[in-house]
UniProtKB/TrEMBL annotation:
<dbReference type="Pfam" id="PF22725">
    <property type="entry name" value="GFO_IDH_MocA_C3"/>
</dbReference>
<dbReference type="InterPro" id="IPR036291">
    <property type="entry name" value="NAD(P)-bd_dom_sf"/>
</dbReference>
<dbReference type="InterPro" id="IPR000683">
    <property type="entry name" value="Gfo/Idh/MocA-like_OxRdtase_N"/>
</dbReference>
<dbReference type="Pfam" id="PF01408">
    <property type="entry name" value="GFO_IDH_MocA"/>
</dbReference>
<dbReference type="InterPro" id="IPR055170">
    <property type="entry name" value="GFO_IDH_MocA-like_dom"/>
</dbReference>
<feature type="domain" description="Gfo/Idh/MocA-like oxidoreductase N-terminal">
    <location>
        <begin position="12"/>
        <end position="139"/>
    </location>
</feature>
<dbReference type="InterPro" id="IPR050463">
    <property type="entry name" value="Gfo/Idh/MocA_oxidrdct_glycsds"/>
</dbReference>
<dbReference type="GO" id="GO:0016491">
    <property type="term" value="F:oxidoreductase activity"/>
</dbReference>
<protein>
    <submittedName>
        <fullName>Gfo/Idh/MocA family oxidoreductase</fullName>
    </submittedName>
</protein>
<dbReference type="GO" id="GO:0000166">
    <property type="term" value="F:nucleotide binding"/>
</dbReference>
<keyword id="KW-0560">Oxidoreductase</keyword>
<feature type="domain" description="GFO/IDH/MocA-like oxidoreductase">
    <location>
        <begin position="148"/>
        <end position="284"/>
    </location>
</feature>
Amino acid sequence: MTLVANKNKKPFRVGMVGAGFMAKLHSLSMNNIVGLTNDPDAKFDLIRIVDIHAASAKKEAKRWGWKESGTDWKTVTRDASIDIVDIATPNDSHCEICLDAFANGKHVICEKPLSTDSKTAELMARKAVESGKIHMVNFTYRAWPAIAQTKKIIESGAIGQIRHFEGHFLQDHNNDPTIPLHWRFQKGPAGAGALGDVGAHIIDLARFLVGEFDSVSATMQRFIDERPLVEERTKKGAVEVDDFTSALIKFQNGATGTIKAGWALPGYKNDVFFAVIGEKGSIRFSWERSNELQYFDSSDPSDLSGYRTILLGRVHPGAELFWFPDLGGESGMGVTAQGMGYGEAFALSFNHFVDSLKSGKSASPNFIDGLRCCEIIDAIKISAEKEAWQKVHLAKI
């Protein structure tokens, strides 16, 4: 089905469901797109933000310039004055909101993971495609200049056939046992713990850079079995999800890999790491040094052989929007190493969303990418339970 582009050049009228932490980053990004791109047609009109907690919605509306706030998400999905639904709610609520949004002719951007399981994610992907509307899953790191540059290097053939991918997303904040039993620690609303929360990102990057998964062999661990209840801190409830997951990967193209996802590993603050190893070279990246990319070329002479560090600047995909002046030289490079951060990553994701809204071309990553991630998460969970290799089932959409 042909996607529907925004051809009237009016502001993109958006409603947001969820007023938690992501509301800050999404709102900031939408407010800044016009200034960063110098494109008046990239303007968002922030119509309404809703949340089950009225005070949270009202607070974020005032903070970021949303015209209205409320508690009923259907006032977003069914409002004729809204073109786009932005979903940043617990994972088990994504499906119902998305389906209603598509049924009412809205474009949708949804936080990851797309759903708590591949069955509902498949339904969401099918309805997204059938709607003819733009649909995007906010795998933020895919848009980061270092990762876009990695994709560019791989596609150029510079490192040759990929042999191995090593990746992890590790954090330590949930190593604190006093953190209460919020929804991310519960299987129903979350689907998975560290695997679904941060692991979804490294799974998406592995697919984006290397290709489709064929099969996985995984282990899952929980380090903290009980946490204080949110409403009554003197009592505790059972944690139902993983704190750490590790998996071996076989890709369809013959490459192998490893992925790790953890949120209770002391010393790791927010480390999104990968190394892509090919027959002629390698590329590696860590978010802890997010403005650098390391590249190894096997053709270098032995006395110069080793990883070189590339400092991000305006010549790298997406970085030209930010803080790198063009000094007018013939190389067009300007100044590098001014530095970008987490907020800029979200701005880049929303800029990609804008490009799709304007052109009518499929967003990347879209709901099919979101489905693939959920299929891999399900396979990892089954593998860990069975203690055996598990094929990844890929639904045809």
